[in-house]
Amino acid sequence: MTNPLSAGAEIISVKEHERIVIRNALVLTMDCDNLDEVESTSAVVLGAQKECDVVIENGIVKAIAPNAAANQTGARVIQGRGCVVMPGLIDAHTHPVFAGSRATETVLKAQGLSYEEVTARGGGIVVSMRATRAASTAELRASYIARARQALARGVVAWEAKTGYGLNVEQELRLLECLYEAHKEEKVANFLPAMAPTVLGPHAASPEQHGLDNYMQALIDALPQFSSLAKKYAELDRVKPISVDVFLERNYFTREQADRWLSAALQHGMDVHLHADEFSRSGGCEVAIALSQKMEQTHARARNRGRVLSVDHLQYATDSDLLKLQTLGVMPVVLPLTSFFSNIAYVEGRKLRSAGVRAAIASDFNPGSAPMNSLWFAAFLALVKGGFAMSEVLTGVTRHAARAMGVEASHGVLRVGLPAQMIMFEGNCPEDFFATPLGDHLKTVII
Ligand SMILES: [Zn+2]
Fold first, then answer.
1. Phi, psi torsion values for 279, nearest 5 degrees
2. What is the pTM of this model?
3. How far is the CA of 364 from the centre of ligand 1 (A)?
4. Centre of ligand 1 from the C-alpha of residue 427, in Å
5. Tens-place pLDDT, residues 70-103
6. H helical segments located in 205-346
7. Fold annotation for 89-405
8. What is the whole-number distance in angstroms between the Cα of residue 52 and the centre of ligand 1?
9. Residue 313 Cα, ligand 1 centroid: separation in angstroms?
10. Do the two domains 10-88+416-446 and 89-405 of this chain adopt the same fold?
11. Could you say which of 91, 173, 210, 306 would form a disulfide bridge with 271 (CB–CB 3.0 to 4.6 Å)?
12. 10-88+416-446: which CATH number, 3.40.309.10, 3.30.470.20, 3.30.70.20, 2.30.40.10?
């Protein structure tokens, strides 16, 4: 079936028993173990195959090889000549459940105010919290669906969706319900990216709770409620169980509070992420290292226990911390749009490379510090401003992003036997991904 609403790229949601073949495209599978040879052999890193066919059957990739589509009579044929096919993009860090606009802050920041100064003047997360609380659940659900459709039309086949504008237990649960409702109805969900919901209750202070510590305790006490919702989520197709996150930063949550929240969530079997070391060296990476080590030591990384999946932002993270995290299986996530909109430093690809660290690249789409639903542009910025190599960017928005979201078993690479989730854009070489900064040359999205 084809989505009649999409204006730009054609969105194909593969039906059961449907056969689709793409013929003669340049295919980038991203399925390569040899990630260390980054720059010189990017064709190897990207798993590039010229004049290649892709066969999809029952929503599964059946073949990736030259001439694989030769005997596929009765299949829907997509001509891939002059096009590049690669895994669908994965946005591992977004805040898409909100109401209201914070464009005033964009104007203030353009005049030279920092994010923290804007917050001190009454802007920031609390503005989105007020608008979000004032919106009805139906409104929030509808605006979320519109944003998710937009992301899919821009090539994002899976995204992580954080709450965090409710700022008390009841409101945070309401935002999770919104996500659940949006992905529950098959007709709607078939044209949304796959989704990984994340509770970001500890995003800022709660107006109802006196002090961050009390709010944190209320959230920890509510973990059974969050995790029982997680069971409901488990029934949904293309939706991952609920994870948790925390904004560990000066003037926000402390190391100790973050550690309590994340430890408790891990004990409940939930995966965890951290907003870490964005405005200062606030200790987020150190918390993640300590938690991961503890999980390893207690052999608690077995079934039914959560994993520390990612540390995100990282402007002030040290190379040695990131390297330790990589060894522990925790994926660094860099967010170039936030640097672009908040006029703060970009995390430097060159620096990560020399330290031997790989990273995911995500949008951080949110109403304040990154009011742009475009992972494609985040990738573009990582290349032109962050100094990431082309292959690092392309793996950063696919296979590394899948790791950061904990969906690497089914997403992020093109491989026979995996669900068909891919994009096709006009071009003749991998570099052509960057032919337009917003991905205007994206032609087809297949989920
Ligand atoms: Zn964020």
1. -100, -15
2. 0.94
3. 5
4. 32
5. 888 889 999 999 999 999 999 999 999 999 999 9
6. 212-221, 223-233, 255-267, 284-297, 319-327, 336-342
7. TIM Barrel (3.20.20)
8. 38
9. 8
10. no
11. 306
12. 2.30.40.10
